[in-house]
Amino acid sequence: MDYKKIVGNQDKRLKILSLLSWVPDAIMLRIQYRIKFGFWPDFKHPKRYTEKLQLYKMKYRNPVMGQCVDKYEVRAYVERKGLGNILNHCYGVYDNANDIDIDSLPNSFVAKTTDGGGGLNVIIVRDKNSLDKEQFRKDLNHWKGNLFKMDPGREWAYTQMKSSRIIVEELLEDDTTGDGSIDDYKLMCFNGKFRCLWVDKGRYSDHHRGFWDENLNFLKGVYSDHDTFENPPALPENMNEMVAIAEKLSEDFPYARVDLYNIKGKIYFGEITFYPWSGYVKFTPDEFDYTLGSYFTEY
């Protein structure tokens, strides 16, 4: 069962979940897990990655996480790690979309709320001359703070953010992909050790996702919520550098996923997330849930 299909409107889903905010995390997360997977999680003797991630949400508390999930504040964290060179250009951060001087921005850019996740609350502008400025500002102001205030997935780190704002950044583009998307490299690290890579390609056309192990061997037949590759694409020549970056950025946490882009050999920072899919993802084969869970030793 997928509750997003039952209640398709995001605002309605958030409203329903906000009305249930009084329900303790341990109970609410069990219910959400049961709805998604069709069986109850084992929180006493967890073995699955998806079970341990729920416990991670409930138990692990590191104040730095609040900085890392904020799309603007995380930039200071990356710089503190000595990796400021992988940050893309930031044009500004705003409390209100009405303060954005669109005329002063380049022709293309991306705007998003600092508390968005999972691709939510993002506006990609490829030609500002065709932009509906009024709707642009309306959408951003409407989105700002929704996830931050309601915490629908009981994801503690987001409740530690200072505020919800709007960030406007350089639009990264790769003319080699063919559909205007950027290949997305997501490195899953446990206790600062890289263990698994997944790559998203063709996000705007024929979206495929593939998984690689810690030795960068393609895991044929392993997939989640998108088709996998029949023939795996070649990884960037500087993939080892990307692994080193991910391990550096994740070393302070029992678990973190570090997202990077690689455009013609240039590495860019994407984001750090601690709760991919909010822990509600079905893997094929099911054993892969246990494989990832075996790396999850602290929570």
Sequence-ordered SSE layout with sheet pairings:
Layout: H1 3-6, H2 10-19, H3 25-37, H4 49-59, H5 64-68, H6 74-80, E1 90-94, E2 109-113, E3 122-125, H7 133-143, H8 146-150, H9 156-159, E4 166-169, E5 184-190, E6 193-201, E7 208-213, H10 239-250, E8 255-263, E9 266-273, H11 287-295
Antiparallel strand pairs: 1-4, 2-3, 2-4, 5-6, 5-8, 6-7, 8-9
Helix pairs in contact: 3-4, 4-11
What percentage of amino acids are in beta strands? Answer: 15-25%
Main sheet overview: 5 strands, antiparallel
- What is the 3D shape? globular
Helix content: 25-40%
Which regions have little confidence, pLDDT < 50, spanning 5+ residues? none
* Structural class estimated from helices and strands: alpha+beta
Put simply, the count of helices is 11
Count of strand segments: 9
Oligomerization: single chain
Major beta sheet, strand line-up: 7-6-5-8-9
Mean pLDDT: 92
How large, in whole angstroms, is the Cα Rg? 19 Å
Order of helices and strands: HHHHHHEEEHHHEEEEHEEH
Distance between the termini: 27 Å
What does this structure look like?
There is one protein chain. The chain is of the alpha+beta class and 299 residues long. 30% of the residues lie in helices and 19% in strands. It contains 11 helices and 9 strands. It has helices at residues 3-6, 10-19, 25-37, 49-59, 64-68, 74-80, 133-143, 146-150, 156-159, 239-250, 287-295, and strands at 90-94, 109-113, 122-125, 166-169, 184-190, 193-201, 208-213, 255-263, 266-273. The protein has a 5-stranded antiparallel beta sheet with strand order 7-6-5-8-9. A 4-stranded antiparallel beta sheet has the order 1-4-2-3, with helices on one face. β2 (109-113) and β3 form a beta hairpin. α3 (25-37) runs antiparallel to α4 and α4 packs across α11. The longest helix is centred in the N-terminal third of the chain and has 13 residues, at 25-37. The protein is globular. The mean pLDDT is 92.
